[in-house]
Amino acid sequence: MRVTAVGDCGVDRYLDLGRDRPGGITLNFAANARRLFPGTDTVGVVTALGTDREARLVRRALAELGLEACVAELDGATSIQYIDHHPSGEKIFVRYEQGVLGRYRLGPREREVIARSDVLMAVVYAQIEGFFDSVMESPSPGLRAVDFGDLSGVTGGAGIVERCREGFHLGFFGLSASDGALIDALERLARRQHQLFAVTLGGQGSLVLGGEQRLSCPAVEVAQVVDTTGAGDTFAAGFVREYCASRDAARSLARGAEEAAAAVQRVGAFPWED
Fold first, then answer.
1. Residue 271 belongs to a domain
2. Count of domains in the chain?
3. With 90 as the cut, is the pLDDT of residue 108 above it?
4. Do the bridges between strand 68-73 and strand 42-49 make them parallel or antiparallel, or are there none, so unpaired?
5. What region, left, alpha or beta, does residue 76 occupy, with left being phi > 0 and alpha being psi -120 to 50 degrees?
6. CA 110 to each of CA 36, 40, 134, 204, 257: distance values in angstroms, whole numbers, following the listed order
7. Residue 209 CB contacts under 8 Å (≥ 6 apart), including other chains
8. What is the DSSP letter of 137?
9. Cα(136)–Cα(199) distance, rounded to whole angstroms?
10. Among 24, 33, 47, 258, which has the minimal tally of Cβ within 10 Å of its Cβ?
11. What is the 3-state secondary structure (H, E, C) of 43-108?
12. Could you tell me the sign of the dihedral formed by the alpha carbons of 89, 90, 96, 100, in that order?
């Protein structure tokens, strides 16, 4: 099986810790997928990096994590997410600089990689919508998933889910329990489009929408939350791994919750030694 994650591989800059770590939604997902999928499977990324020192950190991570990398090198900066922490361990998002990803579009080499993928995981957020659209226009034969995050800032809000409905089978969303109206709207959309949507709600657990019944799973209790950065990406990797094996949404939801619980007890979405 060939698993391909397409999107942002960059740097998480921890302001409170004074540390840079390789990160980004796509790299976080791929690193955990590499850990969870059998060693005989291929796990890789399609991304763009700049020509700065941050790119060197990301390239080293791709190599050390054992990920197949289709990387476009563009003149400019690699994407950086600036992070701080609440004393509870909750991530505080400070700002994001998309760098070269803002003008990156897939080319023939990248489309060929996608066309050979049995599992595709794409990501969309406001700063890379053009990149995302080029991914949705690139066909692949297997399971296709999209991480929509919290839908903030993307053109049309939840409308983007319906706009690209032909391009994916499984959707991931990171929302909160107070987003009840949006969750209800997504459930109606999932049923109408015959798709599955997995929704993470932080400490309030997670949901699967789109079946005859809404499925729910409580968050796994942990002794201490260290860092919530990448917990949703780790959840998605666990969910996709189980779903590929069993096509059982309830088991996939539980696996995602277990993996997310492990992630929040360390700094970053995957183990990494500076």
1. no
2. 1
3. yes
4. parallel
5. left
6. 24, 22, 10, 38, 32
7. 183, 186, 187, 190, 191, 196, 197, 198, 199
8. T
9. 21
10. 258
11. EEEEEEECCCHHHHHHHHHHHHCCCEEEEEECCCCCCEEEEEECCCCCEEEEEEECHHHHHCCCCH
12. positive
Residue burial 151-190, b: 16+ Cβ < 10 Å; e: rest? beebeeeeebbeebbebbbbbbbbbeeebeebbeebbebb
Q: Any idea what DSSP says for residue 228?
A: -
| 28 token code pair | 């976080």
Q: Locate 68 and state its tokens.
A: 């197949």
Q: Which amino acid does the sequence have at 86?
A: H
Residue range(s) defining the domain that contains residue 184: 2-263
Compute the Cα dihedral for 152, 154, 159, 160 and give only its sign. Answer: negative
Q: Exposed, middle or buried, 108 (CB in 10 Å: 0-12/13-18/19+)?
A: exposed
Let me know if residue 221 belongs to a domain. yes
pTM summary value = 0.97
Tracing tokens 């054992």 back to the chain, one arrives at 66
- In a domain, residue 272? The reply is no
Residue by residue, DSSP assigns 147-169 as E-TT-TTSTTTTHHHHHTGGG-S
Q: Which amino acid is at 117?
A: S
Evaluate if residue 273 carries a pLDDT over 90: no
Residue 274 has pLDDT above 80, yes or no: no
State pLDDT tens for residues 111-158. 999 999 999 999 999 999 999 999 999 999 999 999 999 998 899 999
E strand or H helix that includes residue 170: strand 170-174
> What's the mean per-residue pLDDT of the chain?
96
Helix, strand, or coil (residue 125): coil
Residue 210 belongs to domain with CATH number: 3.40.1190.20
